[in-house]
Amino acid sequence: MRRPSLTAAAGGTLALSLVLAGCGGDSGSDSGGALSVSDAYVPQPVSDDMAAGFLTIVNDSGTKDELTSVTSDQAGEVTVHETVGGSMEEVQDLPVPAHGQLVFKSGGNHLMFEKLKRKPKQGQTISVELHFTKSAPVVVKMPVKSATYTPTTGH
Fold first, then answer.
1. What pTM did the predictor assign?
2. Closest by CA position to 90, among listed 66, 64, 111, 73
3. Cα torsion for 127, 75, 58, 107, to the nearest 10°?
């Protein structure tokens, strides 16, 4: 089933066949199948109601997939954005190429947390659920880092 948008879904418990914790360090990856997530983090926001999130999704399978939505029961609405030619726009889905990766980094693809339920602070963790066209949902724990944090991976 394809989700029509990337807005956060409220409520409900979803049984997951794949649960991953996003690595908060500069390297390493947690995997549990064809998809793995690494280097997930949220810079501590300056705003009370908005934040950005970054991570890398790696697809080790020979089949292309698509990220179709991101939800978070604890953070509020989550949308996916890409930056093209200096302009940020919300997108409905993003490809995760076979034997490739989808990178979310500053100045490029990124998650936007809007209408935050609470302002995240450094040291806390935000849990998000990534939804795909073909793969099972993936839960990622995104540590909140300092506002000036820059990982060695460049995102």
1. 0.77
2. 111
3. -140
CA dihedral (129, 63, 54, 116) positive or negative: negative
Count of C-beta atoms within a 10 Å radius of residue 51: 24
DSSP character at residue 10:
P
Instruction: Report, in angstroms and rounded to the nearest whole number, the Rg of the chain calculated over CA atoms.
Output: 14
Strands 138-145 and 35-43, bridge-based pairing = parallel
Phi, psi of 119 (to 5 degrees): -75, 120
| Whole-angstrom distance, CA of residue 99 vs CA of residue 148 | 32
Report residue 94 CA to chain centroid gap: 12
Question: 107-150 pLDDT, tens per residue?
Answer: 899 999 999 999 999 999 999 999 999 999 999 999 999 999 98
Determine the length of the chain. 155
pLDDT tens digits along 16-46 = 223 333 333 333 333 445 899 999 999 999 9
